[in-house]
Design brief:
The structure holds 2 protein chains of 2 kinds.
Chain A: H1 5-23, H2 32-42, H3 46-51, H4 61-92
Helix pairs in contact in A: 2-4
Chain B: H1 2-28, H2 34-56, H3 62-81, H4 87-115, H5 123-127, H6 129-156, H7 171-192, H8 197-217, H9 225-247, H10 250-273, H11 278-284, H12 308-316, E1 320-325, H13 327-332, H14 335-347, E2 351-356, H15 366-373, E3 381-383, H16 384-387, E4 396-400, H17 409-412, E5 431-436, E6 456-460, H18 463-476
Parallel strand pairs in B: 1-2, 1-4, 2-3, 4-5, 5-6
Helix pairs in contact in B: 1-2, 1-10, 4-6, 4-8, 4-9, 6-7, 6-8, 6-9, 7-8, 9-10, 12-18, 14-18
């Protein structure tokens, strides 16, 4: 059996979704907001896609779009992880 | 050499990154390991970026460095400056930013491979059929996430009709038309438009998706906004997955699927807490029925109110006190004042606990975050199912800026739009103090019969100011 890239992608998608369901089925309500925020930061993984799109110095539409995508994704990643960390630090400092 | 980098080393780095994302997400679900889980996920992201840069090899980094520097600065500043009360809004904005990134990446792919490459065939011929379709999906989900998140942000801020549902006439028809237009544009983009024509379709698709995001969120009332933010969070993951299909990148697919799945679960948990089905939230337009009145008049009669002094006198003799925090506590930044009052009461031998409704505040866990900021011990935060049987033996319940989650109409008034929603049974406790700025309705937009009960006393005012006054009185007693 040989699979094309699309089918491999679908396999990966389905299996990863199951992992996602299993990993967080039981979460105390305390952590819902930090978890949502942390998961949201992970969705900034689009930054990987964005990096592939702006590889030359030219001022072309695709580069401008690529640069914008990097900008948006970085906001999501940096802001997301930092804000999650801030929330979790508050839990940590209790005596 | 560089072959080995691209075909072996980079994929292995991506694998390590994916594993760390999974472990990080798992650790984020446990109180003790949450902080390290977040750091793990952040490190996984770093690995992903490093792996990608290795994969790209030596290129011109101007756009990359520019985008990352500006984006990092904006993200970091926002994360440091934001108040804890504004957290839900912040997550909504970051989420929108992630959605925007997915849509814009897909658009960049269109311009790079179709327009600037000067191809004449259809997108399906140039990119491959499944890629062309997923480019369309990526644009669609990304743009919808962006505009939906922005509307959710405005609703959380109370800027759009103070969070009330906005119901356009014929909105279901409009949505259907937009949905059909969307399907047509995706197919036309992939298989019909030739060469640069594809951009017209892509831009049209972006516009339609943005409009749909707005239309899907505006009819939903502020009370349901947490569900919406959670769902949009899930969407932004799916958008990242779609981008992964466009670029044949498994790391993107995996991480996106993880977020998509976790977002769905959180959404489901929240819906269960409110005893509503997801479909109901998305299609219903909460408050649509409540306009009809929901049983009984909206006017209040027999409301008693008092000041901080009387409240302190009752508290002084109480043996058990349950604090019910709500959004009013967050707005007033009263978490430290609550803690101070609780300390004083505990010093007098009174048992103080906090009753946390699953949807108190504007996000699940919102209240926990605030109270943790004031160093309130975990053990004192009780979940709804644990605390509800205890209200019967509770001397005093203090409701701080919560409203719908303590409305007994949810238990016995079948005509009420919130009928069936599990609530905190504060009305069963011996006496209830409700600290609130006025008698105005909560997010559900309905009257709260609790306020008229004989054992309920209102204390009108800002939660922080009232609590500070109570603390002052307690010290003087």
């Amino acid at each position: 059996m040989t699979m094309g890239p699309l089918l491999i992608g679908i396999y990966v998608l389905v299996l990863a979704s199951f992992v996602g369901f299993e990993v967080i089925t039981k979460v105390p309500p305390t952590l819902h907001t930090p978890l949502m925020s942390g998961a949201n930061a992970i969705s900034g993984i689009t930054i990987v896609g964005a990096l592939y799109t702006a590889q030359t110095a030219d001022v072309t539409t695709s580069n401008i779009l690529g640069g914008l995508a990097i900008l948006f994704a970085t906001i999501n990643v940096v802001g997301g992880f930092m804000v999650t960390n801030r929330m979790l630090q508050m839990f940590g400092k209790k005596k | 050499m560089s072959d080995a980098v691209n075909t072996v080393i980079v994929p292995l780095i991506f694998l390590a990154s994916a594993i760390l994302f999974i472990l990080g997400l798992k650790r984020l679900g446990r109180v003790r390991t949450a902080a390290s889980g977040n750091q793990m996920a952040a490190f996984a992201m770093l690995l992903a970026v490093v792996g990608t840069l290795l994969d790209i090899g030596i290129v011109d980094y101007r756009w990359i460095i520019g985008g990352m520097a500006v984006g990092g600065l904006i993200g970091a500043t926002a994360a440091i400056k934001v108040e804890m009360t504004e957290m839900p809004e912040m997550v909504a904005l970051f989420n929108g930013s992630g959605g925007a990134a997915s849509a814009v990446v897909a658009l960049a792919v269109v311009w790079l491979n179709v327009v600037e490459a000067g191809t004449t065939g259809t997108a399906a011929e140039t990119l491959g059929g499944s890629q062309a379709i997923t480019v369309g999906l990526s644009i669609l989900i990304g743009a919808l996430t962006l505009s939906g998140s922005l509307i959710a942000y405005l609703k959380l801020q109370g800027k759009l009709k103070r969070g009330q549902p906005i119901l356009l006439p014929g909105r279901h028809v409009i949505n259907l038309v937009l949905g059909a237009a969307m399907l047509y544009l995706i197919v036309a983009f992939a298989y019909q438009a030739e060469g640069a024509e594809a951009t017209t379709m892509a831009i049209g698709l972006t516009g339609v998706a943005l409009a749909l995001g707005v239309l899907l969120v505006i009819p939903i009332g502020g009370a349901d906004m947490p569900v919406v933010v959670s769902l949009l969070n899930s969407y932004s993951g799916m958008a990242a997955s779609a981008t992964g299909f466009v670029l044949s990148n498994n790391l993107l697919i995996i991480s996106g699927a993880l977020v998509g799945a976790s977002g769905l679960i959180l959404t489901q948990i929240m819906c269960v807490a409110m005893n509503r089905s997801l479909l109901n939230v998305l299609v219903g337009g909460f408050g649509e029925d409540s306009a009809a009145g929901g049983g009984g008049s909206d006017e209040y009669v027999n409301v008693t109110s008092c000041g901080a002094e009387e409240c302190a006198m009752v508290l002084e003799n109480a043996e058990s006190v349950v604090v019910v925090p709500g959004y009013g506590l967050a707005v007033a930044q009263a978490q430290h004042a609550v803690r101070e009052m609780a300390d004083l009461l505990e010093a007098r031998g009174c048992k103080v606990t906090y009753a946390i409704h699953p949807v108190a505040g504007r996000m699940p866990g919102h209240m926990n975050v605030l109270l943790a900021e004031a160093d309130v011990p975990y053990e004192q935060l009780l979940e709804m199912d644990t605390v509800n049987p205890e209200f019967k033996t509770t001397d005093v319940s203090i409701v701080l800026g919560a409203n719908d989650v303590v409305n007994p109409s949810a238990l016995d008034d079948k005509a009420s739009p919130i009928y069936g929603m599990p609530i905190l049974n504060v009305h069963e406790s011996r006496s209830v103090f409700v600290v609130k700025r006025s008698l105005s309705p909560g997010y559900a937009g309905i009257k709260n019969v609790l306020f008229e009960n004989d054992n309920t006393t209102m204390i009108f005012g800002d939660a922080k100011k009232v609590l500070n006054d109570v603390v002052k009185e307690l010290k003087e007693l």
